[in-house]
């Protein structure tokens, strides 16, 4: 196994898992403006990297395919929705629920694969999805509120994944095109906030906050670049297990650092979802091992 790819995947998931701590540092900035800065500086970084590596070909190659261009515009909308809700939820005290969304996401990917891509589930996968559904229902009816943040995060990221699976484009150029689609609206929105005296560009907060807003763009792009590097070099079964590192860290931060409630009802709901994930992960690992064993003829 490629150790460089393993460390890249580990680093990407750790950064994603620790992001609530970073966004919490920007709590004084309105969540929408944090997202807009994240879009702008992420786009600048990714586009600069692609121009350095590939020149202008990566833009021309995508825009020459109208269907692909529209798909990436749509995926950009879903990832922007995901980012926006995530940052708002973190700074509104819902870190535990955001972690639930990313625990649910792999299982929701399976369901979407059945509905949209006509994939078939084996009994273990159906069992996993059913247990997870019980967990969500438990949280809904026993915790006292519908987990709309978790489900919206899971659905938006799952739809993003479906579109990116359909769109025949490499990960980083695809991210670059998505970012460029979002760049102009984000810049105009920041300009509007600036004109209204409600923030927007720099000078309204401390230099430290301004720097954090810029670095937030890098923290958007770098884990995605590292992840795309890793998935080409290590087995997807390993990536599939490691992906739970991020929501686990988010959950621990929400409970241990921010002091969010995690009583008996939440514990039961999360345990059901963790059992579903364990069934799902073990089944995936076994199937990958069977595919890896050469046939004896």
Automatic annotation (TrEMBL):
Compartments it resides in: Cell membrane
Family named by the database record: Belongs to the EamA transporter family.
Superkingdom as given in the UniProt entry: Bacteria
Transmembrane segments: 7-25, 31-52, 68-88, 100-117, 124-140, 146-163, 175-193, 205-227, 234-255, 267-285
Boundaries of every EamA domain copy: 5-140, 149-280
Lineage of producing organism: Bacteria, Pseudomonadati, Pseudomonadota, Gammaproteobacteria, Lysobacterales
Organism, as annotated: Luteimonas vadosa
Name of the protein in its database record: EamA family transporter RarD
Record membrane topology: Multi-pass membrane protein
UniProt keyword terms in alphabetical order: Cell membrane, Membrane, Transmembrane, Transmembrane helix, Transport
PANTHER family for this protein: ACYL-MALONYL CONDENSING ENZYME-RELATED, SOLUTE CARRIER FAMILY 35 MEMBER G2-RELATED
NCBIfam families per the UniProt record, alphabetical: rarD
């Amino acid at each position: 196994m490629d150790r460089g790819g393993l460390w890249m995947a580990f680093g990407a998931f750790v950064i994603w898992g620790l992001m609530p701590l970073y966004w919490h540092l920007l709590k004084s900035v309105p969540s929408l403006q944090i997202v807009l800065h994240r879009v702008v500086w992420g786009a600048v970084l990714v586009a600069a990297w692609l121009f350095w590596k590939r020149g202008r070909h990566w833009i021309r190659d995508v825009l020459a395919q109208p269907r692909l261009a529209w798909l990436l515009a749509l995926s950009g909308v879903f990832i922007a929705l995901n980012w926006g809700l995530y940052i708002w939820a973190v700074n509104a005290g819902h870190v535990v629920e955001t972690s639930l969304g990313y625990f649910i996401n792999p299982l929701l990917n399976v369901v979407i694969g059945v509905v949209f891509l006509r994939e078939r589930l084996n009994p273990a996968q159906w069992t996993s999805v059913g247990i997870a559904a019980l967990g969500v229902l438990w949280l809904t009816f026993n915790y006292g509120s519908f987990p709309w943040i978790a489900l919206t995060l899971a659905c938006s990221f799952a739809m993003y994944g479906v579109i990116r699976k359909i769109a025949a484009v490499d990960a980083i150029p695809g991210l670059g095109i998505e970012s460029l689609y979002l760049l102009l609206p984000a810049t105009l929105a920041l300009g509007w906030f600036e004109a209204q005296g409600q923030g927007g560009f720099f000078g309204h907060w401390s230099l430290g906050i301004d720097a954090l807003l810029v670095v937030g763009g890098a923290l958007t792009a770098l884990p995605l670049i590292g992840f795309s590097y890793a998935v080409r070099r290590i087995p997807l079964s390993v990536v599939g297990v490691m992906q739970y590192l991020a929501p686990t860290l988010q959950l621990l931060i929400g409970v241990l650092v921010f002091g969010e409630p995690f009583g008996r009802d939440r514990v039961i709901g999360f345990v059901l979802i963790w059992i579903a994930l364990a069934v799902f992960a073990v089944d995936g690992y076994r199937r990958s091992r069977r595919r890896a064993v050469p046939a004896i003829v």
